[in-house]
Write a structure and sequence with these properties.
By secondary structure, this protein is an alpha/beta fold. The chain is built from 14 helices and 17 strands. Bound molecules: adenosine monophosphate (AMP).
Protein backbone atom coordinates (compact mmCIF):
# COMPACT_ATOMS: atom_id res chain seq x y z
CA UNK A 1 0.00 0.00 0.00
CA UNK A 2 1.70 3.18 -1.22
CA UNK A 3 1.20 6.18 0.99
CA UNK A 4 2.35 9.77 0.80
CA UNK A 5 5.26 8.75 3.05
CA UNK A 6 6.73 6.73 0.19
CA UNK A 7 7.26 9.81 -1.99
CA UNK A 8 9.50 12.84 -1.95
CA UNK A 9 7.75 15.81 -3.50
CA UNK A 10 10.76 18.04 -4.12
CA UNK A 11 10.13 19.97 -7.36
CA UNK A 12 6.96 17.95 -7.89
CA UNK A 13 3.40 19.06 -8.35
CA UNK A 14 1.06 16.92 -6.25
CA UNK A 15 -2.51 16.65 -7.53
CA UNK A 16 -4.48 15.99 -4.34
CA UNK A 17 -8.14 14.89 -4.21
CA UNK A 18 -9.30 16.37 -0.92
CA UNK A 19 -12.75 16.43 0.62
CA UNK A 20 -13.56 20.12 0.97
CA UNK A 21 -17.29 19.49 0.77
CA UNK A 22 -17.77 21.67 3.85
CA UNK A 23 -21.01 23.18 5.14
CA UNK A 24 -21.50 26.91 4.38
CA UNK A 25 -23.92 29.31 6.05
CA UNK A 26 -26.19 31.81 4.25
CA UNK A 27 -23.27 34.26 3.92
CA UNK A 28 -21.12 31.47 2.46
CA UNK A 29 -18.88 31.20 5.51
CA UNK A 30 -17.51 27.77 6.45
CA UNK A 31 -19.38 26.52 9.53
CA UNK A 32 -17.43 23.30 10.15
CA UNK A 33 -13.79 23.31 9.13
CA UNK A 34 -12.88 19.79 10.25
CA UNK A 35 -12.49 18.46 6.71
CA UNK A 36 -10.02 21.21 5.84
CA UNK A 37 -8.10 20.57 9.06
CA UNK A 38 -8.12 16.87 8.17
CA UNK A 39 -6.42 17.52 4.82
CA UNK A 40 -3.69 19.68 6.32
CA UNK A 41 -1.04 17.02 7.14
CA UNK A 42 -0.90 15.74 3.55
CA UNK A 43 -0.71 19.24 2.08
CA UNK A 44 2.05 20.27 4.50
CA UNK A 45 4.10 17.15 3.74
CA UNK A 46 4.12 18.07 0.04
CA UNK A 47 5.13 21.67 0.75
CA UNK A 48 7.76 20.74 3.34
CA UNK A 49 9.37 18.32 0.87
CA UNK A 50 9.79 21.28 -1.50
CA UNK A 51 6.88 20.65 -3.84
CA UNK A 52 3.59 22.35 -4.68
CA UNK A 53 0.00 21.22 -4.13
CA UNK A 54 -2.94 21.37 -6.50
CA UNK A 55 -6.14 20.71 -4.56
CA UNK A 56 -9.31 19.41 -6.15
CA UNK A 57 -12.68 18.78 -4.52
CA UNK A 58 -16.40 18.95 -5.02
CA UNK A 59 -18.73 21.15 -3.00
CA UNK A 60 -22.45 20.49 -2.76
CA UNK A 61 -24.49 19.02 -5.58
CA UNK A 62 -24.30 21.34 -8.60
CA UNK A 63 -25.06 18.39 -10.92
CA UNK A 64 -22.87 19.48 -13.81
CA UNK A 65 -23.92 23.15 -13.72
CA UNK A 66 -21.88 26.16 -12.67
CA UNK A 67 -23.51 27.36 -9.44
CA UNK A 68 -22.11 30.55 -7.93
CA UNK A 69 -22.99 29.59 -4.36
CA UNK A 70 -21.13 26.29 -4.73
CA UNK A 71 -17.90 27.82 -5.99
CA UNK A 72 -14.82 26.78 -4.05
CA UNK A 73 -13.64 30.39 -4.18
CA UNK A 74 -15.76 30.94 -1.06
CA UNK A 75 -13.44 28.77 1.01
CA UNK A 76 -10.08 30.10 -0.25
CA UNK A 77 -9.55 32.35 2.77
CA UNK A 78 -10.51 29.64 5.24
CA UNK A 79 -8.15 27.12 3.62
CA UNK A 80 -5.35 29.73 3.58
CA UNK A 81 -5.91 30.48 7.26
CA UNK A 82 -5.88 26.81 8.28
CA UNK A 83 -2.89 25.75 6.17
CA UNK A 84 -0.97 28.96 6.89
CA UNK A 85 -0.18 29.68 3.22
CA UNK A 86 -2.10 32.05 0.92
CA UNK A 87 -3.91 29.71 -1.46
CA UNK A 88 -4.25 30.59 -5.17
CA UNK A 89 -7.52 29.88 -6.93
CA UNK A 90 -8.43 29.17 -10.54
CA UNK A 91 -12.07 29.29 -11.63
CA UNK A 92 -11.93 26.06 -13.61
CA UNK A 93 -10.62 22.59 -12.87
CA UNK A 94 -9.58 21.49 -16.37
CA UNK A 95 -8.58 23.18 -19.62
CA UNK A 96 -6.17 25.95 -20.60
CA UNK A 97 -6.76 28.21 -17.62
CA UNK A 98 -6.33 25.43 -15.07
CA UNK A 99 -3.26 24.08 -16.88
CA UNK A 100 -1.65 27.53 -17.02
CA UNK A 101 -2.30 28.11 -13.30
CA UNK A 102 -0.89 24.69 -12.42
CA UNK A 103 2.23 25.02 -14.55
CA UNK A 104 3.12 28.44 -13.17
CA UNK A 105 2.82 27.16 -9.59
CA UNK A 106 6.10 27.43 -7.70
CA UNK A 107 7.39 25.08 -5.02
CA UNK A 108 5.78 25.87 -1.67
CA UNK A 109 2.60 27.17 -3.31
CA UNK A 110 -0.96 25.83 -3.24
CA UNK A 111 -3.56 26.06 -6.00
CA UNK A 112 -7.23 25.30 -5.38
CA UNK A 113 -9.23 24.28 -8.44
CA UNK A 114 -12.89 25.15 -9.00
CA UNK A 115 -15.63 22.68 -8.03
CA UNK A 116 -15.15 19.39 -9.93
CA UNK A 117 -18.89 18.78 -10.06
CA UNK A 118 -19.46 21.85 -12.22
CA UNK A 119 -18.73 19.22 -14.89
CA UNK A 120 -21.11 16.25 -15.21
CA UNK A 121 -18.08 14.27 -16.41
CA UNK A 122 -16.77 14.16 -12.84
CA UNK A 123 -19.58 12.04 -11.42
CA UNK A 124 -19.87 10.09 -14.68
CA UNK A 125 -16.29 8.94 -14.21
CA UNK A 126 -15.42 10.27 -17.67
CA UNK A 127 -12.04 9.10 -18.88
CA UNK A 128 -11.24 12.11 -21.09
CA UNK A 129 -12.08 14.45 -18.21
CA UNK A 130 -9.86 12.43 -15.86
CA UNK A 131 -7.04 12.65 -18.41
CA UNK A 132 -7.40 16.45 -18.44
CA UNK A 133 -7.18 16.52 -14.63
CA UNK A 134 -4.11 14.30 -14.75
CA UNK A 135 -2.23 16.89 -16.85
CA UNK A 136 -2.13 19.20 -13.84
CA UNK A 137 0.17 17.20 -11.57
CA UNK A 138 3.12 14.79 -11.43
CA UNK A 139 1.91 12.65 -8.53
CA UNK A 140 -1.72 11.86 -7.61
CA UNK A 141 -2.72 11.67 -3.96
CA UNK A 142 -6.17 10.55 -2.88
CA UNK A 143 -6.97 11.89 0.59
CA UNK A 144 -10.77 11.92 0.37
CA UNK A 145 -12.31 8.95 2.15
CA UNK A 146 -15.83 10.40 1.99
CA UNK A 147 -15.92 9.90 -1.80
CA UNK A 148 -13.74 6.79 -2.03
CA UNK A 149 -16.83 4.63 -2.63
CA UNK A 150 -17.59 6.53 -5.84
CA UNK A 151 -15.92 5.71 -9.16
CA UNK A 152 -15.76 9.38 -10.12
CA UNK A 153 -13.15 10.92 -12.40
CA UNK A 154 -11.15 12.60 -9.63
CA UNK A 155 -11.48 9.82 -7.04
CA UNK A 156 -10.82 6.76 -9.16
CA UNK A 157 -10.42 7.12 -12.93
CA UNK A 158 -7.65 9.74 -12.75
CA UNK A 159 -5.41 7.25 -10.91
CA UNK A 160 -5.01 5.25 -14.15
CA UNK A 161 -2.97 8.12 -15.55
CA UNK A 162 -0.41 7.85 -12.74
CA UNK A 163 0.52 4.15 -12.91
CA UNK A 164 3.62 4.55 -10.72
CA UNK A 165 2.98 7.91 -9.11
CA UNK A 166 -0.16 7.52 -7.03
CA UNK A 167 -0.68 7.10 -3.32
CA UNK A 168 -2.97 7.52 -0.32
CA UNK A 169 -2.79 10.71 1.72
CA UNK A 170 -2.49 10.54 5.51
CA UNK A 171 -6.22 10.83 6.12
CA UNK A 172 -7.22 8.08 3.74
CA UNK A 173 -4.40 5.83 4.98
CA UNK A 174 -5.67 6.30 8.54
CA UNK A 175 -9.20 5.30 7.53
CA UNK A 176 -7.93 2.20 5.74
CA UNK A 177 -5.81 1.18 8.71
CA UNK A 178 -8.67 1.71 11.17
CA UNK A 179 -10.98 -0.54 9.15
CA UNK A 180 -8.22 -3.11 8.77
CA UNK A 181 -7.66 -3.18 12.52
CA UNK A 182 -11.33 -3.88 13.19
CA UNK A 183 -11.82 -6.36 10.37
CA UNK A 184 -8.52 -8.22 10.31
CA UNK A 185 -5.73 -7.49 12.72
CA UNK A 186 -7.41 -6.28 15.90
CA UNK A 187 -6.74 -7.95 19.21
CA UNK A 188 -9.52 -10.22 20.53
CA UNK A 189 -12.17 -10.06 21.85
CA UNK A 190 -13.56 -8.03 18.96
CA UNK A 191 -16.98 -6.48 19.56
CA UNK A 192 -19.30 -4.80 17.09
CA UNK A 193 -22.10 -2.60 18.40
CA UNK A 194 -24.75 -2.11 15.76
CA UNK A 195 -27.68 0.18 16.33
CA UNK A 196 -29.74 2.56 14.28
CA UNK A 197 -33.22 2.35 12.92
CA UNK A 198 -33.51 -0.59 10.56
CA UNK A 199 -32.25 -4.12 10.09
CA UNK A 200 -32.61 -3.71 6.34
CA UNK A 201 -29.96 -0.98 6.12
CA UNK A 202 -27.46 -2.95 8.24
CA UNK A 203 -28.03 -6.47 7.04
CA UNK A 204 -25.02 -6.69 4.72
CA UNK A 205 -22.78 -5.32 7.47
CA UNK A 206 -24.06 -7.87 9.97
CA UNK A 207 -23.52 -10.73 7.54
CA UNK A 208 -20.01 -9.55 6.74
CA UNK A 209 -18.84 -8.98 10.30
CA UNK A 210 -20.08 -12.29 11.69
CA UNK A 211 -16.82 -13.76 10.43
CA UNK A 212 -14.73 -11.10 12.16
CA UNK A 213 -16.18 -10.54 15.63
CA UNK A 214 -16.50 -12.41 18.92
CA UNK A 215 -19.40 -10.34 20.22
CA UNK A 216 -22.26 -8.67 18.40
CA UNK A 217 -24.29 -6.14 20.34
CA UNK A 218 -27.56 -5.24 18.66
CA UNK A 219 -29.44 -2.16 19.85
CA UNK A 220 -31.71 0.63 18.66
CA UNK A 221 -34.70 0.18 16.41
CA UNK A 222 -33.27 -3.02 14.92
CA UNK A 223 -33.86 -4.79 18.21
CA UNK A 224 -37.59 -5.24 17.75
CA UNK A 225 -37.40 -7.20 14.51
CA UNK A 226 -35.17 -9.72 16.31
CA UNK A 227 -37.38 -9.84 19.40
CA UNK A 228 -40.66 -10.25 17.49
CA UNK A 229 -39.06 -12.92 15.29
CA UNK A 230 -38.36 -14.90 18.47
CA UNK A 231 -41.95 -14.62 19.61
CA UNK A 232 -41.71 -11.50 21.79
CA UNK A 233 -44.32 -8.73 22.04
CA UNK A 234 -42.92 -5.44 20.79
CA UNK A 235 -46.03 -3.25 21.04
CA UNK A 236 -45.83 -0.29 18.68
CA UNK A 237 -42.03 -0.39 18.36
CA UNK A 238 -40.44 0.05 14.96
CA UNK A 239 -40.32 -3.41 13.38
CA UNK A 240 -39.71 -4.80 9.91
CA UNK A 241 -41.99 -7.82 9.73
CA UNK A 242 -40.62 -8.81 6.34
CA UNK A 243 -37.13 -9.10 7.84
CA UNK A 244 -38.04 -11.39 10.73
CA UNK A 245 -36.98 -14.54 8.93
CA UNK A 246 -33.68 -12.92 8.06
CA UNK A 247 -33.22 -11.97 11.72
CA UNK A 248 -33.62 -15.60 12.75
CA UNK A 249 -31.14 -16.66 10.07
CA UNK A 250 -28.62 -14.16 11.41
CA UNK A 251 -29.00 -15.51 14.95
CA UNK A 252 -28.54 -19.06 13.66
CA UNK A 253 -25.44 -18.11 11.65
CA UNK A 254 -23.99 -16.29 14.65
CA UNK A 255 -24.44 -19.45 16.72
CA UNK A 256 -22.68 -21.55 14.08
CA UNK A 257 -19.79 -19.09 14.01
CA UNK A 258 -19.56 -18.90 17.81
CA UNK A 259 -20.41 -15.22 17.91
CA UNK A 260 -22.14 -14.14 21.14
CA UNK A 261 -25.13 -12.00 20.27
CA UNK A 262 -26.26 -9.52 22.90
CA UNK A 263 -29.75 -8.14 22.44
CA UNK A 264 -31.51 -5.79 24.87
CA UNK A 265 -33.36 -7.48 27.72
CA UNK A 266 -35.26 -4.39 28.85
CA UNK A 267 -36.12 -1.07 27.23
CA UNK A 268 -37.39 2.42 27.97
CA UNK A 269 -40.84 2.26 26.42
CA UNK A 270 -42.78 5.43 25.57
CA UNK A 271 -46.46 6.03 24.81
CA UNK A 272 -45.54 8.41 21.99
CA UNK A 273 -42.57 9.10 19.68
CA UNK A 274 -41.85 12.30 21.57
CA UNK A 275 -39.40 13.67 24.12
CA UNK A 276 -42.30 14.43 26.48
CA UNK A 277 -43.95 11.02 26.26
CA UNK A 278 -44.75 8.98 29.37
CA UNK A 279 -42.15 6.27 29.85
CA UNK A 280 -41.70 2.97 31.67
CA UNK A 281 -39.02 0.33 31.83
CA UNK A 282 -40.33 -2.98 30.51
CA UNK A 283 -38.94 -6.33 29.43
CA UNK A 284 -38.03 -6.15 25.77
CA UNK A 285 -40.39 -8.99 24.86
CA UNK A 286 -43.37 -7.69 26.85
CA UNK A 287 -43.94 -4.21 25.45
CA UNK A 288 -47.64 -3.32 25.82
CA UNK A 289 -49.69 -2.22 22.82
CA UNK A 290 -49.63 1.55 22.47
CA UNK A 291 -46.02 1.67 23.74
CA UNK A 292 -42.77 1.65 21.78
CA UNK A 293 -39.17 0.96 22.82
CA UNK A 294 -37.07 4.06 22.28
CA UNK A 295 -33.94 3.39 24.35
CA UNK A 296 -32.05 0.57 26.05
CA UNK A 297 -33.09 -0.20 29.65
CA UNK A 298 -30.83 -0.36 32.73
CA UNK A 299 -30.28 -4.13 32.81
CA UNK A 300 -29.47 -4.06 29.11
CA UNK A 301 -26.92 -1.31 29.62
CA UNK A 302 -25.26 -3.25 32.42
CA UNK A 303 -24.83 -6.24 30.15
CA UNK A 304 -23.63 -4.11 27.20
CA UNK A 305 -21.14 -2.33 29.48
CA UNK A 306 -19.70 -5.60 30.69
CA UNK A 307 -19.10 -6.86 27.16
CA UNK A 308 -17.65 -3.56 25.94
CA UNK A 309 -15.34 -3.03 28.90
CA UNK A 310 -13.68 -6.41 28.37
CA UNK A 311 -13.26 -5.96 24.60
CA UNK A 312 -9.93 -5.18 22.97
CA UNK A 313 -11.25 -4.07 19.58
CA UNK A 314 -14.54 -2.22 19.20
CA UNK A 315 -16.61 -1.10 16.25
CA UNK A 316 -19.58 1.18 16.88
CA UNK A 317 -22.12 1.88 14.21
CA UNK A 318 -25.51 3.31 15.05
CA UNK A 319 -27.12 4.67 18.23
CA UNK A 320 -28.89 2.32 20.66
CA UNK A 321 -31.80 4.71 21.15
CA UNK A 322 -33.45 7.78 19.71
CA UNK A 323 -30.51 9.90 20.90
CA UNK A 324 -31.81 13.06 19.21
CA UNK A 325 -34.39 13.27 22.01
CA UNK A 326 -32.90 13.90 25.43
CA UNK A 327 -35.25 11.47 27.16
CA UNK A 328 -33.91 8.60 25.03
CA UNK A 329 -30.22 9.52 24.80
CA UNK A 330 -28.97 7.84 27.98
CA UNK A 331 -28.39 4.43 26.38
CA UNK A 332 -26.26 5.86 23.59
CA UNK A 333 -24.32 7.95 26.12
CA UNK A 334 -23.73 4.89 28.31
CA UNK A 335 -22.39 2.93 25.33
CA UNK A 336 -20.09 5.87 24.53
CA UNK A 337 -18.85 5.95 28.13
CA UNK A 338 -18.17 2.21 28.12
CA UNK A 339 -16.17 2.56 24.90
CA UNK A 340 -14.26 5.47 26.44
CA UNK A 341 -13.42 3.28 29.44
CA UNK A 342 -12.29 0.38 27.26
CA UNK A 343 -10.22 2.69 25.07
CA UNK A 344 -8.46 4.15 28.12
CA UNK A 345 -7.65 0.57 29.09
CA UNK A 346 -5.92 -0.01 25.75
CA UNK A 347 -8.71 -1.14 23.42
CA UNK A 348 -8.89 0.12 19.83
CA UNK A 349 -12.26 1.73 19.08
CA UNK A 350 -13.61 2.82 15.74
CA UNK A 351 -16.82 4.78 15.33
CA UNK A 352 -18.24 5.25 11.91
CA UNK A 353 -21.05 5.28 9.46
CA UNK A 354 -24.19 7.41 9.41
CA UNK A 355 -25.62 8.71 12.65
CA UNK A 356 -23.16 7.22 15.11
CA UNK A 357 -20.72 9.98 14.22
CA UNK A 358 -23.39 12.62 14.90
CA UNK A 359 -24.08 11.02 18.29
CA UNK A 360 -20.39 10.83 19.14
CA UNK A 361 -19.93 14.51 18.31
CA UNK A 362 -23.09 15.57 20.12
CA UNK A 363 -21.96 13.92 23.35
CA UNK A 364 -18.30 14.93 23.10
CA UNK A 365 -16.87 11.41 22.67
CA UNK A 366 -14.88 12.45 19.62
CA UNK A 367 -11.54 12.54 21.40
CA UNK A 368 -12.26 9.57 23.63
CA UNK A 369 -12.43 6.90 20.95
CA UNK A 370 -9.41 5.78 18.92
CA UNK A 371 -10.81 6.81 15.57
CA UNK A 372 -13.90 8.53 14.20
CA UNK A 373 -14.40 7.84 10.52
CA UNK A 374 -14.96 10.82 8.24
CA UNK A 375 -16.96 8.97 5.60
CA UNK A 376 -20.55 7.90 6.28
CA UNK A 377 -21.35 5.97 3.10
CA UNK A 378 -17.76 4.96 2.41
CA UNK A 379 -17.48 3.52 5.93
CA UNK A 380 -20.72 1.57 5.62
CA UNK A 381 -19.59 0.07 2.31
CA UNK A 382 -16.22 -0.87 3.82
CA UNK A 383 -17.94 -2.61 6.72
CA UNK A 384 -20.07 -4.45 4.20
CA UNK A 385 -16.81 -5.91 2.92
CA UNK A 386 -16.67 -4.05 -0.39
CA UNK A 387 -13.40 -2.84 -1.84
CA UNK A 388 -14.02 0.84 -2.53
CA UNK A 389 -13.17 1.91 -6.11
CA UNK A 390 -11.10 4.89 -4.93
CA UNK A 391 -8.98 2.58 -2.80
CA UNK A 392 -8.71 -0.15 -5.43
CA UNK A 393 -7.50 2.42 -7.97
CA UNK A 394 -4.47 3.26 -5.85
CA UNK A 395 -3.72 -0.38 -5.02
CA UNK A 396 -3.85 -1.59 -8.66
P1 LIG B 1 -29.03 4.69 11.30
O1 LIG B 1 -28.90 5.84 10.35
O2 LIG B 1 -29.55 3.44 10.69
O3 LIG B 1 -27.78 4.49 12.11
O4 LIG B 1 -30.20 5.08 12.30
C1 LIG B 1 -30.07 6.11 13.20
C2 LIG B 1 -31.40 6.48 13.72
O5 LIG B 1 -31.97 5.40 14.41
C3 LIG B 1 -31.35 7.63 14.68
O6 LIG B 1 -31.94 8.74 14.10
C4 LIG B 1 -32.17 7.13 15.88
O7 LIG B 1 -33.10 8.08 16.35
C5 LIG B 1 -32.91 5.93 15.32
N1 LIG B 1 -33.28 4.98 16.36
C6 LIG B 1 -32.52 4.42 17.28
N2 LIG B 1 -33.25 3.65 18.11
C7 LIG B 1 -34.54 3.72 17.71
C8 LIG B 1 -35.77 3.17 18.19
N3 LIG B 1 -35.80 2.36 19.23
N4 LIG B 1 -36.89 3.49 17.52
C9 LIG B 1 -36.85 4.30 16.45
N5 LIG B 1 -35.72 4.85 15.97
C10 LIG B 1 -34.56 4.57 16.59
Amino acid sequence: MKTIEDFNFENKKALIRVDFNVPLDGDLNVTDESRIVGAKPSILKVLEDGGSAILMSHLGRPKGQVKEDMSLKHIVNKVSEIIGVQVKFVDDCVGEKAEAAASSLENGEILLLENLRFYAEEENGDKAFAEKLSRLGDIYINDAFGTAHRAHASTTIVADFFPENKCFGYLLAKEINAIKTVMETGEKPVTAILGGAKVSSKITIIENILDKVDNLIIGGGMTYTFIKAQGGKVGDSICEDDKMELALEILQKAKEKNVSVHLPVDVIAADDFSNDANTQVVDVDKIPDGWQGLDAGPRTLDSFKEVISTSKTILWNGPVGVFEMESFADGTKAVGNAIDYATKGGAFSLVGGGDSVAAVKQFGFENKVSYVSTGGGAMLESLEGRVLPGIAAILS
